[in-house]
Design a protein that fits this description.
288 residues, alpha/beta, seven-stranded parallel beta sheet, 7 strands, 15% strand, globular
């Protein structure tokens, strides 16, 4: 579960790892990079954009992709206000719907227009995604068009975008290349009334495992960020068709067991900085 509103759990409950904990003792960074984050306008994607921006070397390109231009531009403004002065990041917004072929093509085109010279790292974070209709059970999904619409954003879009980006920055350029799939426990475990989400996450994990086998010089990571305090988690609490699941999410929320986007993002960033995970691995917040 991941990405949506930026509210976070009451900070006093746990000692959250901060970005300072992750980066220190020695100052580390992700290089002079082209960093692309999908679903960057809110929730987990927005948090990752903010966190990445302080780890990219000056004159890096940070490309933020989402459907809503206003929210995207707000994230850009926040980043420039916070880090722009000293870091001189080139922050670019791409308004695109990755459910549609045109949205994928528009994003890949924008990636092709980024300067390659003097860059040493390509980093793509596939965060965009949707929960799907979780109010219903598998036997109600009789319309293939409805299922296909879900899969086009959550599976096809992620694969086609990743393929386009890797073609735009081929191996011959000598860049370090990293692809992150924001995954979920749902890739591994079936949840009643979540057939679309579980199927989409499982398919994505396998796509990226295949990519890791085929492209040994690309670093591939599926990261399950844990139960985040976001809009998506709110949907899960209110709409899940399975009453037990609804109760379990509601009690996690009321007992302050949801994770803040910041704390989960810090663990992902530590993984990327340490860079010693097996390529293609599925790693969970709680295993780290």
């Amino acid at each position: 579960m991941h990405h949506s509103s930026t509210s976070s759990v009451s900070e006093g409950l746990l000692q959250h790892p901060t970005m300072e904990d992750v980066i220190s003792p020695e100052s580390r960074d992700l290089g002079r990079a082209v960093c692309i984050i999908t679903g960057a306008s809110k929730g987990y994607g927005r948090t990752l954009a903010m966190q990445m921006s302080c780890l990219l070397k000056p004159r890096s390109v940070l490309m933020l992709v989402a459907r809503t231009a206003d929210q995207l531009n707000q994230v850009k403004e926040d980043i420039v206000t916070l880090y722009g002065g000293q870091n001189k990041l080139d922050v670019r917004c791409v308004q695109a719907d990755l459910e549609k072929k045109e949205g994928v093509e528009k994003t890949v085109q924008a990636v092709k227009e980024t300067p390659v010279t003097e860059m040493d790292h390509l980093l793509l974070i596939n965060n965009a995604g949707s929960l799907g209709d979780v109010s219903r059970f598998a036997v109600t999904f009789t319309d293939p068009a409805e299922v296909n619409r879900y899969l086009s954003l959550n599976v096809s879009g992620a694969l086609s975008l990743t393929a386009g980006v890797l073609q735009a920055f081929p191996r011959g350029l000598g860049l370090r290349r990293t692809v992150v799939n924001i995954s979920s426990l749902c890739a591994l475990k079936p949840f009643p009334s979540w057939v679309l989400y579980c199927a989409g996450k499982a398919a994505r994990d396998m796509m990226f495992r295949v990519l890791a086998e085929e492209e040994p010089d690309v670093r591939v990571l599926s990261y399950a960020p844990g139960p985040l305090d976001t809009d998506m988690q709110l949907q899960a609490r209110c709409l899940s068709g399975d009453p037990q699941l609804r109760r379990s999410f509601s009690s996690m929320f009321s007992e302050g067991q949801l994770l803040s986007c910041d704390e989960s993002g810090a663990k992902l960033i530590k993984l990327l900085l340490d860079d010693d995970y097996p390529s293609g691995a599925h790693l969970d917040f709680y295993e780290l």
